[in-house]
Structures are given as structure tokens and as C-alpha cells.
Write a structure and sequence with these properties.
This protein has helices at residues 11-22, 40-43, 75-91, 179-186, 213-221, 223-240, 242-245, 251-264, 268-274, 291-295, 353-356, 390-410, 420-433, 462-469, and strands at 2-7, 28-31, 95-96, 101-107, 112-117, 122-130, 152-155, 169-173, 192-196, 203-204, 286-287, 300-303, 307-311, 314-317, 322-324, 327-330, 344-346, 368-369, 372-377, 416-418, 477-479. The protein is an alpha/beta fold and 485 residues long. The protein folds into two domains: 2-136 and 335-479, FAD/NAD(P)-binding domain; 146-201 and 284-330, FAD/NAD(P)-binding domain, CATH 3.50.50.60. Strands 1, 2, 3, 4, 5, 6, 17, 18 and 19 form a nine-stranded mixed sheet that branches. A five-stranded parallel sheet has the order 7-16-8-9-12, with helices on one face. Helix 1 runs parallel beside helix 12 (390-410), helix 5 (213-221) crosses helix 6 and helix 12 (390-410) runs parallel beside helix 14. The two termini are 15 Å apart. The structure holds NADP nicotinamide-adenine-dinucleotide phosphate. The site of NADP nicotinamide-adenine-dinucleotide phosphate has 25 residues, from helix 4.
Length: 485
Amino acid sequence: MLEFAIVGAGFSGIAMARALTRAGVHDFKVYEKAAVVGGTWRENHYPGAACDVPSHLYSLADAPNARWTRLFPRQPEIQAHLLSLGDELIATGKIEFAWRLRSAHWDAEQRCWCLTNAAGQQIRARTMVLALGGLHVPAFPDIPGKEQFAGSVFHSAQWRHDVDLSGRRVAVIGTGASAIQFVPIIAPLAAHLSVFQRSAPWLMPRPDFLFPAWVRSAFARLPFAAQMLRGSIFLLLELLSTGLTHRRFGGWARWLAQTHLHKQVADADLRARLMPDYPIGCKRVLISSDYYPALTRANVQLIDEPISAIESNGLRMQSGQLIEADVLIYGSGFKPMDVLADIEIIGSHGRNLANDWQTRPQAYLGISVHGYPNLHFLLGPNTALGHNSVLYMIDSQVRHIMALQRAKRDRNTLSAEPTAAAQTAFLQDVDAGFPNSAWAGGCRSWYLDTQGHNIALWTKSCLAYRWLTRRVNAADYHFDPQQLR
Ligand code: NAP
């Protein structure tokens, strides 16, 4: 039996594996459904895919990368970085690929998790860490007739690089974080590009630049300088995020975004249609300096009328007009609630996580769930971010799991789970901050469930989360009285 089974080899699974190795725990394995590591950065390889968190902050605390070539790294560079981190695990035989988790149940007798993969293979582990990521089940809008479309169709997260867009009529549904990155890249290729917008996004300028070679070699020779940059970016984002965590401080952001729109779009009618009708920050604030210019191209049309149907040769508008297309690209986001849809998790007393989370996913600190001993999530419920680097959250969570591991060892116990009271109190605390935040501005986003509950976001500062997770509060956990023999 393993001490730890980690499921998923994106940034979070790799962070967990590195922390265990550092702590001298070598009895673990990472199980990955794909053939290579990378998670979201392996899946999202659409043209223009890039991170909107500055590179030196978008790195694990224990794996800084002095060689980042630019402020906002692009997908190939991030994926290459992840592959190099993965190589260390592959070299020590710590990853198993093509291993897709189907079910896991808590064996109360043996105090361990029994994991079964899609091929029926079983493994046992004292502790299971689910590092599954939240954004990889594509969402396709429920538009009548979508199966009728006769041209090429794909989702941004399943990009078809074999489909040549040159000289074609391309339709894009969605104007979120992914679409605003690939629209400027495909606009010069397509004969005609129709961008279907349901809600206009708030957009800030993207101050991207290449680090000169001398800066990169300085970072390599003086790691302290890179740490200073990382710390400064983190503190700046913490400061700026007060405009989101407390929406009354968001006036400056609105001013900046409106100025950006005015500078880049001269046409008053287009500008009016690109002006969001909800408070800034309610949906993710996007950063781009080339999206608005792409929309002003002669071969690009922004369509903000609702789509009533998809037909074999195009998209039918509510007005009756047909916008013809040869290729249809969905930039319509993901279904975070469906990440566990095909994985059955059975905890103590036969509890089923899908049932427990039916009304709302919840976990103490977003990490552990009452009724599911020795199960941990990385980037679990209410710990995604709209205002800083999620890698900071992952680092905080991995530290907490390691602290809990030490607490179990000190008590000579085999398992621990949060109390129901601690889990409820955490959720109440998260909810208490929500109404004052920008995310509660009344818009529709993947942060909220259909009842309007915030199921995804951490709505306070990242420092507050680090403080909350810095140590194990023994009163918040139930430690199994059964002792290690
Ligand atoms: P998204 O932000 O959820 O955007 C989906 C888009 O599709 C929205 O514009 C949405 O309109 C539209 N849409 C959905 N259903 C529709 C329908 N029935 N008819 C018309 N339009 C429809 O998805 P995403 O762009 O893939 O981004 C998801 C998340 O991934 C982001 O929030 C971010 O966390 C992450 N991400 C990060 C980066 C980065 O770091 N740069 C890049 C990409 C993605 P509404 O707004 O009206 O709902």
C-alpha cells in the first residue's frame, strides 16, 4: 500500500509530489490520465494561449524559473516548464500515465483508499490527493441544431490544428478569457470572422514584454532578484485585488478599462456594444492589448444578437439573419461542476461525494471533506482565484496537507478528517465576504452555481488564505483514535 496516491499531474499534482519528496516521503505515486504531464497547459494549446499572471509569480515556490522569456508566458513555454518538472518525477518512477481514475472508496477496516482506474486496475493508498484541476470539461452551449453544422467544429480546449482557417468563414461563440486570446491570432487568417458575444468582457491592457538576455542571466545568477520581482508582483496583485474583494474600491479599474476601450476602438457604435453592462470584476477581468484591434479589422464582425439556432451552413440570429460559416469554434468555457462527474468517490459510512455535493460542493479550507478521511483536494471548492496566482493557493494547500501529515504522525494515528462544524464555519466565512465583492455583481459566470452560490472562488486576499492554512488547528479535525501499530 502506498502512503500517498496523487491523481493528476498538472501544476498541483507536481507540487504535491515535490513537497512529499522534500519531506523524505518517497512512498507515493502520481496517476495521470494522459500520456504527458501538464494539466490545463497540456489541454489548452489553442493559438495565442498564454497566462495572464506574470511568469515569475506563475511558478511553484520551490521551482522558480529564471529562464522565463517574457512577463506573460505563453502556453508552449509553460508546458515546457511543466514537462521539465515532470521529468524529475518520471526519472524516479513516480508517475504512471494513461491511468484514469474511475472510482475510489474508503476502506474503513484498513484505513486506506482503494482506487480503481478505467481499466479496472486497483491500488491502495493511505491518503488520496485529487489534483484534478477545475477547467477541463468543455461546455457547449445548448443551442438548437448544433449537431446539424456541416463544417469543422471544435472547442478552444480541443483545438484542431489540422483545420486550416486560411480563407475560410469562421464563427466563434464566446468572448471569455480563451476567445480573446485566439481571436487576434486567427483574425488575419480567416476570410471572414464572426465573433458572437453574449456579454461583453471587461478588458485591461496587457503590458507584456520580453526579458532581455542580460535580465534572464541576472535572474539565474541572483535568485534573490527573481524572488524580489516575484514578491513585488504578488504584493501588487494583492493590493489591486482589493478592488475585487471589496467592490467599492473598484472605481480605478473601471476607469482604466474604459480608457483602454476608448483608446483602441474609434467607432462609437462598436465601442458601445463592447461596453459591459455589469460591474467590473463580476466576471474575470481579462487582459489583452490585441483583442479590440482585432475586432476593428475589416474582415471581423462582432455580433451581439442572440443565436437562435445552428444550421448546416451557419448560425441563425434571432432577427432571422443567417451568418454563414465554414468553421465553428466554441470559446464557451468549461463545466467545473462536471470534473468529478465520471468519478465515484465513496467515503466512510458509504457516503457518496456526488450526493454530498449535489446542492453545493464544499470542503474545509477547500482541501478536506467531512466524512472522507485522508482525502484532499488541490484547488478544491472556493479556492480558485480571480485576482492572483493560483499557484500560490496550491503552495498554501500543499503546505497544509504536509502539516496535517505531521500532525497525524505526532498523534500516531492513521487518518484524519475535518469536523462538520469546521467545514460549515469555513463555508460561512467564505460566504460572509462574498456580498461585498465584485463577483456578487449580478452577472452570470462559472464562479457561481445555478442558485447563485459562489462555488469556485476564494474571495479574500491570498495572504489571508496562507494565514488560515498555515497550521493545523487540531480542534477542526477528527483524528482517528486507532493507533499505528
Ligand atoms: P469563459 O470565461 O467561461 O467564457 C465563456 C464564453 O462563452 C463567455 O463569453 C460566455 O458568455 C460564452 N457563452 C457561453 N455559453 C454561451 C451561449 N449559450 N451563447 C453565447 N455565448 C455563450 O471560458 P474561457 O474563456 O474558456 O475561460 C474559462 C476560464 O479559464 C477563465 O475564467 C480563466 O480562469 C481560465 N483561463 C485563463 C486564461 C489565462 O490565464 N489567460 C486563459 C484562458 C482561460 P457569457 O459571458 O455571457 O456567459
